[in-house]
Write a structure and sequence with these properties.
The protein is α/β, with parallel strands linked by helices and about 120 residues long. The protein has one domain (about 5-115): Hypothetical protein PA1492 (Rossmann fold). The chain has four helices and four strands; from the N terminus they run βαβααβαβ. A four-stranded parallel sheet has the order 2-1-3-4. Helix 1 (about 25-40) links the parallel strand 1 and strand 2. The chain is globular and about 40 Å long.
Length: about 120
């Protein structure tokens, strides 16, 4: 198998006020996405982890709405990827999943072990 550019899709924002420590982003979700991305990297692939874009919002306080992020930051990168790794459902992750299907990308669900080594 050749090296793939794999987009990591999953929840970023918190669901409840007690679930995460930040008022806006959920660092638990971001850590999980980074860990998945690094597992994909160790398998020889090039992961794209859009959760890291949360730092843009935290640092610059741009306060972009979810659809603005997805359409202007996420979709252009998704178009460059070979596959999508789906961690779990959220409004944004579900939109990314549907767009990846539209693009005809290979979709991997939940288990990094199912992604072949490069």
């Amino acid at each position: 198998m050749t090296r793939m550019k794999i987009y990591v899709a999953g929840p970023m924002y918190r669901k409840t006020s007690t679930e995460c420590h930040s008022p806006k982003v959920c660092w638990t979700n971001i850590r999980r996405a980074i860990k998945v991305g690094m597992q994909l990297y160790r398998k020889g692939h090039a992961p794209y982890i859009p959760h890291l874009n949360a730092l843009i919002d935290v640092i610059t306080e741009t306060n972009l709405k979810g659809d603005e992020w997805i359409e202007n930051f996420d979709f252009p990168w998704l178009e460059k990827c070979d596959a999508l790794f789906f961690i779990g459902h959220s409004l944004g992750a579900d939109k990314e999943l549907e767009y990846a299907k539209k693009l005809g990308l290979k979709i991997y669900y939940y288990k990094v072990d199912e992604v072949p080594d490069a």
